[in-house]
Design a protein that fits this description.
Keywords: Deoxyribonucleotide synthesis, Iron, Membrane, Metal-binding, Oxidoreductase, Transmembrane, Transmembrane helix. This protein is mainly α and 362 residues long. It contains 16 helices and no strands.
Length: 362
């Protein structure tokens, strides 16, 4: 039997109307209680389940073998090396920013122990991600000055600084609601990372850099779970931001990510198609909006693009002129998942992962 003082929580219905005087003090997730120090009895079973999923997918940087990557690295073109090293520089800094938000804001604001467990584990795994990216840079870049330049990307690379500043502003913002910041950091982990993850999947399709691409699979899986957790937290909010406000935050993140990977650090450097990358980022944003409970295709409509399905049809029309890679057409069926990892993926991210593998190859 559950504790009568702590009944199982009911998730508010999507689109539930709020009274004008609703404020964050009335949010169940944020309301202080002495029960926040004790985990059992479980009040939020779905939040607890997601924490256990995260726990089951734990890994360390020592599990990733980088010994075969250097010969591949030495055969890459200068453009490919430039692209990979700068993407890694962004990643190396970004996980620290995510943790800054978790430590300074979310872990202090959220009073539900199940969610605090998830955030605590997320902090741990983000540290693993940061270590992994630092090891990758350390392995590939032999020049100490170049390494220092990459490790200090927030100061040395304007386009990395732009993405970092966007996230840091949300951490520092004392006027925004908790719900707005949940959406913003879902965008950081779900959109700001998506294009770079896809670019590294592209390298895997070419049979390059097995250590890098394996770590990318592990990290992209983790970040997908973190994004889905943000969506779950959003569903529990009584005082949700309006759909218009959510769209505004998401579209802003999409525009920054598209600029990053098609202008500042164009994926054309590694042979990918910039138009397809733009549309893929929009697809990811649409998926995020749906997970948050809003209508699909809103991002594409706002940005005035035709959408991913259009590109898929064009690529199927001519195998020899695929937008993805020469001589390779997209198959109609979803690409197979890695069976050993499949059970650890949440339903929302599994859909996005299947679509990503369908586009960029497993």
């Amino acid at each position: 039997m559950g504790d009568p003082e702590r009944p199982e929580a009911a998730r508010p219905e999507q689109g539930e109307k709020l009274s004008p005087d609703t404020n964050e003090d009335e949010e169940p997730l944020l309301k202080k209680s002495s029960r926040r120090f004790v985990i059992f009895p479980i009040q939020y079973p779905d939040i607890w389940k997601m924490y256990k999923q995260a726990q089951a997918s734990f890994w360390t940087a020592e599990e990733v073998d980088l010994s075969k990557d250097l010969p591949h690295w030495n055969r890459l073109t200068s453009d490919e090396k430039y692209f990979i090293s700068h993407v890694l520089a962004f990643f190396a800094a970004s996980d620290g920013i995510v943790n800054e938000n978790l430590v300074e804001r979310f872990s202090q604001e959220v009073q539900v122990p199940e969610a605090r467990c998830f955030y605590g584990f997320q902090i741990l795994i983000e540290n693993v991600h940061s270590e992994m990216y630092s090891l990758l840079i350390d392995t590939y870049i032999r020049d100490p000055k170049k390494r220092e330049f990459l490790f200090n990307a927030i100061e040395t690379m304007p386009y990395v600084k732009k993405k970092a500043d966007w996230a840091l502003r949300w951490i520092a913002d004392r006027k925004s609601t908790f719900g707005e910041r949940v959406v913003a950091f879902a965008a950081v982990e779900g959109i700001f990372f998506s294009g770079s993850f896809a670019a590294i999947f592209w390298l895997k399709k070419r049979g390059l850099m097995p250590g890098l691409t394996f770590s990318n699979e592990l990290i992209s899986r983790d970040e997908g779970l973190h994004c889905d957790f943000a969506c779950l937290m959003f569903q529990y909010l009584v005082n949700k931001p309006s759909e218009e406000r959510v769209r505004e935050i998401i579209v802003n993140a999409v525009e920054i990510e598209q600029e990053f990977l098609t202008e500042a650090l164009p994926v054309g450097l590694i042979g990918m198609n910039c138009i397809l990358m733009k549309q893929y980022i929009e697809f990811v944003a649409d998926r995020l909006l749906m997970e948050l409970g809003f209508s699909k295709n809103t991002v594409r409509e706002i940005l005035g693009n035709y959408g991913l399905e259009c590109v898929r049809k064009k690529t199927r029309q001519n195998r020899s002129n695929s937008l993805l890679w020469p001589g390779k057409a997209i198959e109609d069926g979803p690409a197979p998942m890695l069976e050993a990892r499949k059970k650890l993926l949440t339903p929302g991210f599994r859909l996005a992962q299947l679509q990503l593998l369908q586009l960029f190859g497993e």
